[in-house]
Q: What sequence folds into this?
């Protein structure tokens, strides 16, 4: 699957609804994503490198809520699959590609969300 970089990969409507348009609260959630999720993905890449699939699901679980709240649908599907497959030790051959896909997606979303924060400052 080829990633498109020109379209917005996230959807802030859920956060805007929950926080009733409070930009500061929405930006706090975005900042949490920017601070935490890339690190989780780096750790997941390390688990893949070390062939430790059981260590993937707690990391995927941690990343899942941020990804979900920011409406990053395709990344959410991949992270759920990583979480379930690593927890149940199934489709292990597909995990490296999934983690790689999540990394690629994260890089695009990270840039886009950084812009959101910069524009609102």
A:
């Amino acid at each position: 699957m080829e990633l498109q970089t020109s379209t917005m990969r996230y959807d802030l409507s859920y956060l805007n609804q929950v926080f009733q348009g409070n930009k500061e609260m929405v930006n706090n959630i975005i900042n949490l994503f920017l601070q935490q999720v890339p690190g989780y993905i780096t750790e997941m890449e390390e688990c893949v490198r070390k062939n430790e699939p059981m260590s993937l699901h707690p990391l995927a679980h941690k990343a899942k809520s941020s990804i979900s709240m920011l409406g990053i649908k395709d990344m959410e599907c991949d992270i759920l699959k990583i979480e379930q497959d690593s927890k149940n030790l199934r489709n292990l051959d597909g995990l490296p590609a999934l983690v790689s896909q999540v990394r690629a997606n994260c890089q695009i979303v990270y840039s886009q969300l950084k812009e959101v924060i910069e524009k609102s400052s």
Remarks:
- DSSP finds five helices and no strands in the chain.
- The mean pLDDT is 93.
- The helical segments are 13-18, 23-49, 56-69, 73-87, 95-120.
- The longest helix spans residues 23-49.
